[in-house]
């Protein structure tokens, strides 16, 4: 039995080039077999550059490749639902970029479709598997800080160029969707439950996306997350941080 | 001209014994001349212990001591207004424990009275003069972190005994008044302006005081403070911290 997983990548995203492809190449059982772009020349160039055997001129063609077992969806947030469901319908497992969808109803529809077609669906919040976060989680579970009382977290950077997909509200852009979602995902992961109430404020820029979201999430055990995500940093800077405070 | 300032202390508070009296004794121009308690024996014992020449059995007697120029009011928060105004009416300068009053109207009345009687009024937020905070402020003013975007702060400890004055709502007790006020005062100091809006939640214990207050203050320049103050820590622990994030 051949245990190699053949991956296909929808689109020529930079995140795939810098993180996903090296990850699959470095894995014990993964191989990137195909890449697809709406522009076939772009797909071919990307395939040459990263030593990927097959290049397609449309996402549909890749999904019709019978040898592909799993696809990565590093497309803009606003396209996650459409392409995840199309992939599921073709029987492909899906690793979808974070955040998985633009609203809960979309995420539910994606989840339902993948269950129906018997394929796995995973949201690419890689930090859940980062040794640093795993060690933090272990220390919390060992009772080293007692019950969690408060988490502060931030992820911020400078503003994206006006034509960046992350400045496009119709594609699910903005600071919260691109960066702040990490703060929320990490807190949900470390606390181990879902928030019961939220207070947040947003500053919406001329582009129509939030350039800042600041909020507090209240968890059922009394834990809280205070986070800030913004695109207001000086160009040279990027901030990512999370601090967990316990009762001891 | 004798430049020594003769101080009087209203009450036998522990904060006076541990911080204020050593501070005055260590100063170039201060002398603790009198202490007053509603229990004259208590005042006499306190005076003996700290080498204070005069002990009175009522606060009024101390305010009638013509040689006293300045008084410390380390009484419970709910008594600050009454005794600050009485001291001002006797022509005494006032150093009042933090927070200066239980509401803005009381603080205004205290301020008005001190102005009217030509005496100084100061709120004892000592950390404004702490070298560490002064250095932080200098670094901010030098532009080292650019414009302030966010401050996170906390001051928390374990719950006080049920009969502690800080567990008494009618005396201005609770976590916010006792501890959280430091977070707010520090942020106002470092940002250099007053908040324009606030969102906060409180958890009120059986005693009737807040055992936790969690909030966000929005400043006019876009700076924000996210703070948490609670009485939920393990007995052995005390947390005090403030982190300032800038655009660079």
UniProtKB/TrEMBL annotation, chains A, B:
Organism: marine sediment metagenome
Keyword Oxidoreductase: yes
Name listed for the protein in its UniProt record: Gfo/Idh/MocA-like oxidoreductase N-terminal domain-containing protein
One term of GO molecular function: oxidoreductase activity
Domain Gfo/Idh/MocA-like oxidoreductase N-terminal residue range list: 6-124
Organism lineage string: unclassified sequences, metagenomes, ecological metagenomes
UniProt xrefs under InterPro entries: Gfo/Idh/MocA-like_OxRdtase_N, Gfo/Idh/MocA_domain, GFO_IDH_MocA-like_dom, NAD(P)-bd_dom_sf
Keywords: Oxidoreductase
Record keyword Oxidoreductase present: yes
Family as reported in the entry's similarity comment: Belongs to the Gfo/Idh/MocA family.
Domain GFO/IDH/MocA-like oxidoreductase: 133-248
């Amino acid at each position: 039995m051949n245990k190699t997983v053949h991956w296909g990548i929808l689109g020529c995203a930079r995140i795939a080039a810098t993180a996903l492809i090296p990850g699959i190449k470095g894995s014990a059982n993964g191989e990137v077999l195909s890449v697809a772009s709406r522009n076939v020349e772009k797909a071919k160039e990307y395939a040459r550059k990263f030593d990927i055997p097959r290049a397609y001129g449309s996402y549909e063609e890749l999904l019709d490749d019978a040898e592909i077992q799993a696809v990565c969806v590093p497309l803009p947030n606003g396209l996650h639902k459409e392409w995840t469901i199309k992939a599921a319908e073709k029987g492909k497992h899906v690793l979808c970029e974070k955040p998985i969808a633009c609203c809960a109803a979309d995420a539910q529809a994606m989840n339902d479709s993948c269950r129906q077609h018997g394929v796995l669906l995973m949201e690419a919040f890689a930090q859940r598997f980062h040794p640093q976060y795993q060690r933090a989680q272990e220390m919390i579970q060992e009772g080293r800080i007692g019950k969690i009382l408060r988490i502060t977290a931030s992820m911020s950077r400078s503003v994206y160029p006006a034509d960046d997909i992350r400045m496009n509200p119709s594609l699910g852009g903005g600071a919260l969707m691109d960066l702040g979602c990490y703060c929320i995902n990490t807190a949900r992961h470390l606390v181990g439950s879902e928030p019961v109430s939220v207070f947040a404020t947003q500053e919406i820029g001329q582009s129509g996306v939030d350039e800042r979201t600041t909020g507090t999430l209240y968890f059922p055990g009394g834990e809280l997350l205070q986070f800030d995500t913004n695109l207001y940093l000086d160009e040279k800077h990027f901030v990512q941080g999370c601090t967990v405070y316990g009762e001891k």
